[in-house]
Amino acid sequence: MTTLATPRSAHRAPGFTAALAVPAAATLLALMNYTAPMAVLADTARGLHAGATAQIWLMSSISLGLAAALLAVGSLADDHGRKRVFLIGAGVLAASSVVCAVAPDAGVFVAGRIVQGAASAALLATGLGIVAASFEPGPRRAHATGVWGAMLGLGIALGPIASAGLAGAGGWRLWYWTAALASVLLGASALVLPESRAAKPRGLDLPGLATLCLGVGALVAAITWGRAGWTRPAVLALFAAAAVSLSAFTAIEARRREPMLDLGLFRRPAFLLSIVGALVTGLAVIGVMSYLATIMALVLGLSTVAAALVLAIWSGLSFAAALQARRLPSRLPAGRLLGAGLALSAAGELAMLGLAPDGHWWRLVPGLAVAGIGSGLANAMLARLAVESVPAGRASMGTGANNTARYVGASVGVAIVGAIATGSGTGASDLAHGTNVALLVSAVVALAGAALAVTIRRVPR
Q1: Can you tell me where the transmembrane regions are (predicted)?
Q2: Residue 434's domain spans which residues?
Q3: Are 184 and 121 in contact, with CB atoms under 8 Å apart?
Q4: How far is C-alpha 311 from the chain's CA centre?
Q5: What is the 3-state secondary structure (H, E, C) of 402-418?
Q6: Which of 46, 282, 366, 399 is the most buried (most CB within 10 A)?
Q7: CATH code, domain carrying 79
Q8: Are residues 279 and 236 in the same domain?
Q9: Contact 221, 29 (CB under 8 A)
């Protein structure tokens, strides 16, 4: 049985470089695929004959698969082999990308995107687990997790640009054929990786898996569908199902001898910081930035490609900042740096206030730059906390819990930003006013998250 590799043996292993390169490439592909529809939503909706409600699902359905599967696949990977689950994820992503590429209608496309989300969850959770298994705590792991975190920003930057470019060359479906090919190549590259798993695997927690996936899936579905009407019976039923399932999951995990998620971890300041930080990042950063390219097109009149390129200022600097985070003094606590990242994100959002139909895109550049640096710093620290806040051998579970909070937060954030931005109307002036309010609300939430990061860091163990 293979276990976590020591740094010395990992350094000598032929797959040592691949242990960072392959997970980084997987994260890049997953985030590019996550953001790809942003730039081609109108073309995709026309091609699939999707109405207004269906368009919400075209954009958000991948979040359902991601959030529902992240913690579950992370736990499975720790116990049954990270490489094995990674390879399954790459194969399923390839197959589901083909489904999206040939989808005849919105229903088939949405189903494909949900499965893409679950497959991406396998790549994200196992990828950082593989990194943690190959690098001991210290500067080398800090560098490796920084690279992994940097791919989040780079993927967000490249996804809309790549999909828009491919749409211009051969239609919106071309991105999904490209994603399928990339997934196959990714799986082939992963074959060189050594297998790793926890030294003491646990039994399969089927009741925990079922209630968690149902609960998180119902919650994200309710949030997504709720954007078309929060008081609809189906939406209320989904919220009720989420509450029942997640309560059942908590009760099951509290009574199991070897739970999938040890609830005692929430008494660890570092783990609590990882979850709260990820949730705030989704709420206050990903939520508003996911909407910004569309708003630039509607309010400032930019083309979809131009709007994606402007947004790439934020995501590109996020990539660069996460890469450079390893150069920060190791004596600085991750919690303090996470708080600084959230505070910078808030400052950048405040700097973007004043959006108006007669404004220019360059007016947003200073705020995008500051927010990008803050986002990169936060991503690097969240990646480090995800693997260092859990027991040795549970890195994929820690990553899954961290990213579940991130994408649940993002789903809520997108819903809130959309409601605020369109609350006054859909004209250019109304959208500009609503977006300014959404930026202010997001900044306040990010500042509250920064304050919590400092507070949680000081809680005694």
Answers
A1: 52-73, 85-104, 110-135, 147-168, 174-194, 206-228, 234-252, 272-299, 305-325, 337-356, 368-387, 407-425, 437-456
A2: 7-202+260-457
A3: no
A4: 17
A5: HHHHHHHHHHHHHHHHH
A6: 399
A7: 1.20.1250.20
A8: no
A9: no
Q: How many domains does the chain have?
A: 2
Q: How many CB atoms lie within 10 A of CB 321?
A: 24
d(CA 37, CA 44) in angstroms, rounded, equals: 8
From 416, 277, 268, select the one nearest 343 (Cα to Cα).
Answer: 277
pLDDT of residue 16: 58
**Are 246 and 291 in the same domain?**
no
Length of the chain: 461
Same domain, 278 and 249: no
* Among 57, 167, 63, residue whose Cα is nearest residue 105: 57
d(CA 420, CA 438): 6
Instruction: Please provide the average confidence, as pLDDT, over all residues in the chain.
Output: 86
Asked whether residue 146 carries a pLDDT value surpassing 70, the answer given is: yes
Question: Does the residue 2 lie in any domain?
Answer: no
Q: Decide if 167 contacts 175 (C-beta within 8 A).
A: yes
Say whether pLDDT at 228 is over 80. no
Residue 65 CA to residue 411 CA, distance in Å, equals 12
Separation of CA 121 from chain center: 9
Dihedral sign of CA atoms 396, 401, 405, 410 in order: positive
Is residue 187 situated within a structural domain? yes
Residue 1 within a domain: no
